[in-house]
Amino acid sequence: MFGRQKSSVTVIVKAAFEEARLRGDRRLGTEHLLLGLLHHDEAARALGVDLAAARAALEQLDRAALRMLGLEVGELPDTPRKHPAVPATALTSSARAVLNQAIKATTVKTRDAEVPRHLALGLLAQKSPDPVAQLVDQLGIDRAAIRARLA
Question: Which residues form the Clp R domain (predicted)?
């Protein structure tokens, strides 16, 4: 289902780190991997969601979490603040596990074509309280339908 694109693994991971940086997060989590995966056109089509919708859903989840703590955040500026880059070693244990699993499920020869599919499947398999599970629920992604399509 996912065709070969120029170094898709690298593109997805770099995009995930950039998404984490844009949000001002200090670590790369599974939610950032999903955002990075949505930079891959075929993955976004397969999941039935676009990057802007995923970013908006993640912001809604953040605001809800802050409200639970008694904090209300007003309107945020359209242009993101300048945040430092997220260190390459700053992956959450869950993000590291999903990424490693996706890479190990492929061969070197098929890696670029297959990692996006395995990464999508790994992210869909995450359970709450993992941030990506909450994001998938917020986006209304049908896990079973997507798994059946990608398997």
Answer: 10-61
Structure tokens at 145: 């339908």
Does the model's pTM come out above 0.85? yes
In tens, the pLDDT along 74-96 reads 766 566 667 888 888 899 999 99
Q: Is residue 3 part of a domain?
A: no
Cα–Cα dist 83/88, whole Å: 15
Query: Residue 70 domain-assigned?
Result: yes
What's the chain's Rg over C-alpha atoms?
15
The two structure tokens encoding residue 119: 């990464």
Residue that is written with structure tokens 């098929």 in the block: 110
Record the tokens describing residue 127, joined without a space. Answer: 């359970």
Q: How many of the other CB atoms lie within 10 Å of CB of 28?
A: 25
How large is the greatest C-alpha to C-alpha distance in the chain, in angstroms? 51
Q: Which domain holds residue 117?
A: 8-150
3-class secondary structure, 91: strand
Q: Quick one: tokens of 74?
A: 């007003």
